[in-house]
């Protein structure tokens, strides 16, 4: 099974992984709120964002916003 997965093209592997992780996140939301279901949701949602390919740009934007917010907060008016 793993060899069949590795035989797929790179884009197909990433797409399949993203679909599975989004479905896992959706499935975790169907359970009552507790630490386990929330951890599974956030881990699979982060993995899906990584598999789609927008995690690094998303993190760069978030860090830039934090840096600007800290500069504005620390500056004297």
What's the total count of β strands? 0
Low-pLDDT ranges: none
- Label the structural class: mainly alpha
State mean pLDDT (0 to 100 scale): 92
**Overall spatial form:** flat
Strand content: under 5%
Q: Helix-strand pattern, N to C? A: HHHH
Radius of gyration: 18 Å
**Number of helical segments?**
4
Ends: how far apart? 62 Å
Q: Helical residue percent?
A: over 70%
Biggest sheet statistics:
none
Count structural domains: 1
Describe the structure.
The model has no long low-confidence stretch (mean pLDDT 92). Helix 2 packs antiparallel against helix 3. The chain contains four helices and no strands. The chain has one domain. Helix content is 83%, strand content 0%. With 77 residues, the protein is mostly helical.
Please give a quick description of this structure.
The protein is flat, with a radius of gyration of 18 Å.
